[in-house]
Design goal:
alpha/beta; Rossmann fold; formyl-coa transferase, domain 3; seven-stranded mixed β-sheet; three-stranded antiparallel β-sheet
């Protein structure tokens, strides 16, 4: 979507006290939608920037379209600078342990007195209740919320292969913020918004809870589940590759039989309905497996695509950089790595998975370097060049 003023959240200012994934994800969604998001980092920079291993992608993925302001919040002058920003802000986002922001004098009670129109979003492990003071992580929530049990085989709980709960918690936080902005138009006042990891996980497994409510039987982990469809799994191909294929309607069953010349199966009246096919899955699947095994991966996918049946190659994340659909549709955004071994390297990372009025949301600001915008942000808050220089020289503010 071109033109910053045309973006849905243009004119909204967000002050983001976050690290890791959940809080930054909420800020990212607002930033992509056009909000001016100022990321508050420690004077030396957010430690998320230098995480190794699986954490190395956290900062570059969730911090585009933001401005970086590095400041020592424990220093009186640093806190005063941040308070000046908050006084003119629409939104604050934070995802620190319960009580941390209050101890810094930056909790909702304190800030809302200064700025009654402020919408304050806390991204937490738990909503109000017996668990609310616990420290939580994405993996903690997946374990206790039932998702790890459903993902792994029996007796081997397994977290999902990405920070799905952190991201979803961030998304619910962004949703709450946008709802609060809308409500503020009528009330003139801000409010406190809380999104959480645990309840986000429970929301995801709600379908399995509902399954138990309907059937009286506990949902089995996904690797051993009784599928609602007979053909709904990964199949081997002639060249040693794999393709997922799903047949989820009686019409699709007829298309499959016609496309692959499965005349005997098509004529078998005991396989006419979906529930019939599930009941006879043991004798049906070997025929389908043998049929698909005659094709290479590419030939099988070409045939399935022509037929209109649901299918998917088994892709790895690093292969998505060259995915023709993502490349052609603007699904990958050009960015520059700011930290780590490949600092300064150009890359492309996923855009917000959303279109509005036929347009995707893109890059307004590249990934921020540590303190890249500190001087700019202070100047906007009314500090003189001499005052800014003094704050930098004292180490209260980190700036380029």
């Amino acid at each position: 979507m071109s033109g910053k003023q045309a973006l849905p959240l243009a004119g909204v200012r967000v002050i983001e006290f976050t690290h890791m994934v959940m809080g930054p994800a909420a800020g990212l969604m607002l930033a992509d939608l056009g909000a001016d998001v100022i990321k508050i980092e420690p004077a030396e920079g957010d430690s998320t920037r230098t995480l190794p291993g699986s954490g190395a992608g956290y900062f570059p993925m969730y911090n585009r379209n933001k401005r970086s302001f590095c400041v020592d919040l424990k220093a009186a002058a640093g806190k005063e600078a941040v308070l000046r920003l908050v006084d003119k802000a629409d939104v604050v986002i934070e995802n620190f342990r319960p009580g941390t922001m209050d101890r810094l004098g930056l909790g909702y009670a304190a800030l809302s007195q200064r700025n009654p129109r402020l919408i304050y979003c806390s991204e937490k492990g738990f909503l109000s209740g017996p668990y609310e003071e616990r420290t939580a992580l994405d993996e903690v929530a997946q374990m206790m919320g039932g998702l790890a049990y459903m993902t792994g085989p029996p007796g081997k709980p397994l977290r999902a292969g990405t920070s799905v709960i952190d991201v979803q918690g961030g998304m619910f936080g962004a949703l709450g913020i946008i709802a609060a902005l809308y409500q503020r138009q009528a009330s003139g006042r801000g409010q406190y918004v809380v999104a959480s990891l645990y309840e986000s996980t429970v929301f995801l497994v709600g379908q399995h809870m509902a399954q138990f409510a309907v059937t009286g039987k506990a949902a089995a982990p996904m690797p051993v589940r009784v599928s609602a469809w007979a053909i709904y799994q990964v199949f081997d191909t002639a060249d040693g590759e794999q393709v997922f294929v799903g047949v989820v309607s009686d019409k699709q069953w007829k298309l499959l039989c016609e496309a692959f010349d499965l005349r005997e199966l098509a004529a078998d009246r005991s396989l006419d309905t979906n529930n019939d096919r599930v009941a006879h899955k043991d004798r049906l699947l070997p025929v389908i497996k043998a049929t698909f095994l005659k094709y290479s991966k590419q030939d099988l996918m070409a045939k399935l695509e022509k037929t209109g049946l649901p299918f998917a190659p088994i892709a790895r994340p690093e292969q998505l950089f060259d995915d023709p659909h993502l490349v052609a549709s603007g699904g990958l955004l050009p960015l520059t790595v700011t930290d780590g071994e490949r600092k300064g390297e150009a890359t492309r990372l996923p855009a917000l998975p959303l279109e509005m009025d036929g347009h995707r949301f893109g890059v307004l600001r590249d990934l921020p370097r540590r303190g890249q915008h500190s001087r700019e942000v202070l100047a906007e808050a009314g500090y003189s060049a001499a005052q800014i220089a003094e704050l930098v020289s004292q180490g209260v503010v980190g700036a380029e």
